[in-house]
Amino acid sequence: MTAEVAEGWPRVYVLFPATAREALGFYHRAFGGDLVLHTYEEFGRDDGPADAIAHGELRGPVTVFGADAGSGEASLRMDGMMLSILGTDDARLRAWFAALAEGGQVLDDLQERAWGAVDGQVRDRYGLRWLIGIEPATGA
């Protein structure tokens, strides 16, 4: 017997340093989609403030899960890794790049590369590093 795996996995799940509500709201504004937040109190957790986020889900064109790190849990520290979003929707990808750069740091501006695509890198205000790539559209 084989187990089914949902399409598009794995998903990123970020443990934030008491900023999950703010961060997931930021990604919701940047990417759109549906955002659902659950507090420690709702989940019966007592290892942090009652209003801390025990589990949050942003589902849409970009899916991000996150929570506030509990007592004794390490929170986000991102070195040597980036999240990539690649596609052909030039306007949407450029808008996402700009939204992620607000309050963050552009590491490598969007620019055409030798292989014909456009890409760039940004570290957002919450510490996630993103590679946004715009592939040339192919004719039908």
Question: Could you walk me through the main structural features you see in this protein, from its secondary elements to its overall organization?
Answer:
There is one protein chain. This protein is α/β, with parallel strands linked by helices. The chain has two domains: 12-68, Signal recognition particle alu RNA binding heterodimer, srp9/1 (2-Layer Sandwich), CATH 3.30.720; 83-134, Signal recognition particle alu RNA binding heterodimer, srp9/1 (2-Layer Sandwich). The protein has helices spanning 20-31, 90-101; strands at 12-16, 34-39, 53-59, 64-68, 83-87, 105-112, 118-123, 129-134. The strands form two sheets. It has a four-stranded mixed β-sheet, covered by helices on one side. A hairpin with a 5-residue loop joins strand 6 (105-112) and strand 7. Helix 1 runs antiparallel to helix 2 (90-101).
List the helices and strands and how they pair.
Layout: E1 12-16, H1 20-31, E2 34-39, E3 53-59, E4 64-68, E5 83-87, H2 90-101, E6 105-112, E7 118-123, E8 129-134
Parallel strand pairs: 1-4, 5-8
Antiparallel strand pairs: 2-3, 3-4, 6-7, 7-8
Helix pairs in contact: 1-2
Looking at this protein, list some descriptive labels.
single chain, 140 residues, alpha/beta, Signal recognition particle alu RNA binding heterodimer, srp9/1
